[in-house]
Amino acid sequence: MRSRTSGMWWGTAIEAPDPAGLARFYAELLEWPIVHEEPGTAVVGPPQAGVYLVFQQATGYRPPAWPPHDGEQRPMMHLDFQVGDLDEAVAVAVASGATPAPVQPQENVRVLFDPAGHPFCLCREED
Fold it and tell me: Is the Cβ–Cβ distance between 81 and 120 less than 8 Å?
């Protein structure tokens, strides 16, 4: 039986004050190409078909607070990336423009902020 979603692409849309700049950050971080760009929208995708990250212009964008706290914009989602060498992955992310979060709740996970302030996690692969 054929799936209703076979042949379709899927992804998530992420708001940003500078969609093209944020797309360049994730393209460098993931070593994925920017597959589409137009005013107010940029899309990053893997070399093979799969999930896409769509970055869209957001007027009045406010970065989320992490860890969440009352009265501030809460993160409504975040991206997790599994990595083999956590220290190396953090160094690459920081060199690409990420900022480590001041609070790190787990030994095998590093929380960072992308250039627009979205939190994302680098998670060490379990042996």
Answer: yes
